[in-house]
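User: For a benchmark we're assembling, each entry needs the component sequences followed by a predicted structure for the full assembly. Here are entry 17's components. Please fill in the structure.
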Amino acid sequence: MVTIYDIAKKAGVSITTVSRVINNHPYVKDKTRAKVKKLLKATGYVPNSNASSLVSKKTNTIAVILPDITNIFFAKILRSAEERANSKNFTVIYGNTNEDFQREKNYIKTFIEKRIDGLLLDPIATDISIIQPLEQNNIPFVLIDREIKGSQKSHVGIHNEKEAIRIVNYLIKKGKKNIALISASEELSVYKDRKKGYIKALKGSGLELKKDHLKIGTKPIKAVGYNLTKEMLKSSAVPDAIFVANNFLAIGVYNALQDLDFKVPADIAIACFDDFATESIIPPFFTSIIQPASKMGTVAMELLLNKIEGGDSNRKKIYLKSKLSVRRST
Amino acid sequence: MVTIYDIAKKAGVSITTVSRVINNHPYVKDKTRAKVKKLLKATGYVPNSNASSLVSKKTNTIAVILPDITNIFFAKILRSAEERANSKNFTVIYGNTNEDFQREKNYIKTFIEKRIDGLLLDPIATDISIIQPLEQNNIPFVLIDREIKGSQKSHVGIHNEKEAIRIVNYLIKKGKKNIALISASEELSVYKDRKKGYIKALKGSGLELKKDHLKIGTKPIKAVGYNLTKEMLKSSAVPDAIFVANNFLAIGVYNALQDLDFKVPADIAIACFDDFATESIIPPFFTSIIQPASKMGTVAMELLLNKIEGGDSNRKKIYLKSKLSVRRST
DNA sequence: TTCAAATATGAAAGGGGTTTCATATGGTAA
DNA sequence: TTACCATATGAAACCCCTTTCATATTTGAA
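Assistant: Structure for entry 17:
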C-alpha cells in the first residue's frame, strides 16, 4: 500500500509536507499542495489510522459488547449507539457474547489491545472484576441495561424493580391471584430487580408467595423458559398468570404451555419484559414492559462520548422510562 | 499505559527480550522469562495491537457491512459470521448502512484506513465502483446476500430467481390468478432476480402480467411496502395475492391491507421472503421463503478467511438452499 | 530600505512494537 | 582442550505517521 513516503518521493517534498497536506495544515504553498493532492488521488493513497493512533493516542473507535444481537432489544441498542458514535466520527467495534462470560472477558482484552477510546458494556459478568482492566488502563466505559452489583459506575438503563411491580400489579388488577415468576440468573442485576419487584407486588397486595411458583434459571434464553415452565407445571398447582422476565424466556414459556395444552390467556396469562421485531405486524401478542432500547443506546453513547471528549468522568446513573403495553396474552 | 520499554527497564533487559517473552520465543532463559512475566502481570501490561499491526501488516480484524442490523435476517448473518471469525482469532468490526449508499462508502474508507484484513459486504451500492478501493488496496472481500451486477467477485447467497418462482408457483397452485408484486429497487440484485422469477412464474402458468400489479419502490423497508400497497389498491383491480420481496416490506403491505379493511388471507394472500424473530412464538404468519441466514454468514466468512489466510483468491459463487414455509397468510 | 512577523519546508525524534544481525555464553562431541 | 553448535541477549533498523524545532523565504509595515 502506498505511504506518505511514496508520495513524498514522487512529489519531491518531505514527508512532513505530505502530512501537512493530508491534515490541511495552513502553511503549505498552494502550488505544493496541489501537486501533492494530485498524487494522493492518483495513487489512491489511504492513510493508515493505526499509525496515526500510535502517536495521537486516539483510535476514534468505540467498542460495544452485547449479549445477543439477534434479540431486537440489543440490536436496537447497537444501531442507535452506532449512529450516535458515527455522528461524532467514531467507529464502532462490536462484540456478541452469547451470554458467555469467557467471551466477554476475551473481548474486553482484545479491545484494550486495540486501544479503543471507550466501551459500552451490557455485561453477562456479575462481578466487578470484569471492569478492572478497563479502569487500570483508564478506558472510559458506560454500563448499559444490566448493572454490576457493588459498582458505582456510570450506567444507563431502566428501573427494573419498579417496572416489574407495575406489570405484576397490572396482572393483579386483572384478577389474577396465582402469579408465577419465570426468570434468569439473579446475578444479573436486571433479573434480580425484576424478581424483587415481583415479590414486592405480591406482598403489597397480600398475595401468597408460593415457592413452586418461583422459577429461576440460568440464562435468559428460550430453552430455559421452556424447561422451567414444564418443571413448574409438573410439580405444583397451576398458576393463573406467569410473569416472565424477558422476551426470549417468554417464547419458551409460551411454547411449553402450548405443548401442555394450556390456552393463553384463557388458562394462563403471560406478561413479560421486552418486545419483538414484529411490533406492527399482527397485533403483538405479549403484554409487556417495553424498554426504550434505542434511546438507551443513544443516551449511553452520548454519556460515553462526553467522558471521552469532555473528560466528564463523573459517574452518572440514568434511568429511562418504560411503557407498559397491554396485549393479547393477558 | 505501560509499554515494553517500561517492562524492559524494570526487568533490566532489552525490549527485544520482553518482546520475545510476550511472543513465546524459545530462546529466553527460564529465569529471565519468569522475571519478565512477573512484571508483565504486575504492571497489567496489555500489548498495543496497532503497533504490532504496523509491522506485521495484519490487524486480525474483519469488517462486516450490513444494511440493517435490526432485521433478524442480517442479525443472524452477523452473529454467525462473527462466531466463525472469532474462532480463527479475528475480531469483527461492523457497520450498519441503513441502506444508505454514502454511509456504505464512508465505512469502506474508514475500514481501509484501519487496515482490515478482509471485508464481508452486503451492499446497498449497485455499482461496481464501490469495491474499487478494496481491489486497489488488495483487500480480500466477499459479497453476501446481494450481488453487484457485472461483478464476477466472490459471493454467497441464494438463488433468488428460482426461489421467487417457487413461491409464486405455490400461490398459483393455491388457485390465485391475480398475483401482484411489491418489491424494492431493481438495482439491488436480489430484488431484480425476485422480480424476474415472479414474471417467469406468471408466464409459465399463462397468467397475465398486469402493469398495475407490479410495484417497485426504492428501499426494502416498511414505509415503502405500505405506500406501494395503498397506491396499487387505489389505481387498479384488487389482486387475490401479493408476492412481497422481503419481510420488512411485507409488514408495510400487511398494515396497508388492514387499514383498507382487506382480510389476509381471505381477501388477499401474502407471500414473502425472509422471516422474523418470532419463529417459535405464535405460529408465524407469513408464508415465505426462508433464507439460511446463519449459514450464509458462516459460509461467507469461511470463504473470506480462506482468501485471507490461504491466499485462495479464486472467485467463488456459492448458492445456498432456501426453504418454503407455508403459513397463515396464504 | 529595513526588519519583524508570517509563511513554507524539512530533519529528526518519537509512538510501541517486531525483526534482523551481531555478539556472548554454555554445552557437547571429538 | 578444541571446535562447533545451540542458547541467550541486545543494538539498531523499520513499520507509517505526527510533531517539534530549526531554517529559509516572503510579506508587509514602518
